[in-house]
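Hi support team,

I've been running sequence recovery on a batch of backbones for a student project. Most finish fine, but this one hangs at about 90% for roughly twenty minutes before it completes. I'm not sure whether the input is malformed or the queue is just slow. I've pasted the structure tokens below so you can try to reproduce it. Let me know if you need the job ID as well.

Thanks,
M.K.
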């Protein structure tokens, strides 16, 4: 059953999947779509037309601006910002107030299982790869590969993480998850999970 707190504002044409919970003072804008079993924490903002997959967690005060796309199982930490304007200005060069027709929104795309740490900023347009982790406070200005672990301002890859989120250990020519034992290989900056049968 879907839950919407009394103090939340959800547009009439927004779509909320079964089991999704929208907590206090959340704003979900027009045409936004959230999948099943999502949790949106207090004070978060979900922009017009944003698409969020199943089983996602959007923590308190996160700002997810349109046209962001989040796949299944994405974690957005507290106070994260997903931007949508490459060259932000309040006014045009002639001093007139900008309107929606004066700029084209660009979005952040986040692939399956990725996690964005508290107060990180993803500057659109960027893609965060599947199962990647963005460290708290990072400023992401370029794409993050699948399983990439990035940190800093601007964010740079400092390692690899597995599906469990723990940093991988290098053992010979393979990378190993200390939590699950899953193994990965790296080639030309791309990490690939090794099937369990190998």
């Amino acid at each position: 059953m879907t839950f919407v707190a009394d103090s939340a504002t959800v547009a009439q044409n927004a779509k909320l999947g079964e089991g999704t919970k929208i907590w206090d003072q959340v704003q979900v804008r027009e045409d936004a779509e959230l999948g099943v079993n999502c949790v949106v924490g207090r004070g978060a903002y979900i922009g017009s037309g944003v698409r969020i997959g199943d089983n996602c967690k959007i923590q308190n005060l996160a700002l997810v601006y349109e046209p962001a796309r989040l796949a299944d199982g994405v974690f957005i930490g507290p106070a994260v910002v997903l931007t949508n304007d490459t060259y932000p200005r309040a006014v045009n060069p002639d001093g007139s107030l900008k309107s929606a027709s004066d700029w084209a929104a660009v979005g952040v795309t986040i692939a399956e299982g990725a996690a964005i740490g508290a107060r990180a900023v993803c500057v659109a347009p960027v893609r965060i790869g599947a199962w990647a982790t963005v460290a708290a406070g990072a400023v992401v200005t370029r794409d993050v590969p699948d399983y990439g672990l990035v940190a800093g301002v601007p964010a740079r890859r400092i390692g690899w993480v597995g599906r469990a989120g723990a940093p991988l250990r290098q053992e010979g020519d393979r990378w190993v998850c200390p939590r699950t034992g899953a193994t990965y290989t790296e080639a030309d900056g791309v990490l690939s999970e090794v099937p369990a049968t190998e």
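--
Follow-up from support: It reproduced on our side and the slowdown came from queue contention, not your input. The two ends are 42 Å apart (CA to CA). No action needed from you.
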